[in-house]
């Protein structure tokens, strides 16, 4: 409207433009004339202030610990970050200054996850098959889900598997799998077991 008003050739044309502004915007006529002669400058979009990155000094140490532990996720790395860094420093693999030690102890898990997401892991991504909803296999296998909030190593999940080929008679092996839910450490220990046929009293 301002452009049309400034290029108007006659007072009649300017008056028509003023009438349009008053009708569309509900301005007072004198205020409409003032705005057309002095347009309000458009507001510039506010610039987003970029926050300075924290823990820059500790990033090389974090990456070294991440690689030493075989590229774990932030949930598993965060509880053992400082202790593993201290272990690497004791073997001369890492220079651990008081500033780096403080940053390793202070960094939060979400911040650690954002830092790790920018690094490339050489481990291939595992894709698990998703069964179709309502499949016969899924309906026959009981699954219990529960929430855990452990953040210290030592909470274990244990699974026992019998390798007997469908029969519990004779000699066969057990596999005991123990998984630390925080660090992901998973040793497997096989053991030999023997089962006797059941005896029935007459």
Would you write up a description of this structure?
The chain is elongated, with a radius of gyration of 35 Å. Among the domains are: 2-37, no CATH class; 59-117, no CATH class; 152-194, Single Sheet (N-terminal domain of TfIIb). 10% of the residues are buried. The protein has helices at residues 2-6, 11-25, 29-37, 59-68, 74-77, 81-90, 98-106, 109-117, 136-140; strands at 156-163, 170-180, 188-195. The model is unreliable at 196-202 (pLDDT under 50). It has 202 residues and is of the alpha+beta class. The N and C termini lie far apart (108 Å). Strands 1-2-3 form a three-stranded antiparallel β-sheet, with no helix packed on it. Helix content is 38%, strand content 13%. A hairpin with a 6-residue loop joins strand 1 and strand 2 (170-180). The chain contains nine helices and three strands; from the N terminus they run H-H-H-H-H-H-H-H-H-E-E-E. The longest helix is centred in the N-terminal third of the chain and has 15 residues, at 11-25.
Extract low-pLDDT stretches. 196-202
Q: Can you count the beta strands?
A: 3
Helix content: 25-40%
Q: Give the integer mean of the pLDDT values.
A: 81
Radius of gyration: 35 Å
Count of helical regions: 9
Helix-and-strand structural type: alpha+beta
Largest β sheet strand count, sense and barrel closure: 3 strands, antiparallel
Major sheet strand order: 1-2-3
Order of helices and strands: HHHHHHHHHEEE
Shape: elongated
How much strand? Answer: 5-15%
Gap between N and C termini = 108 Å
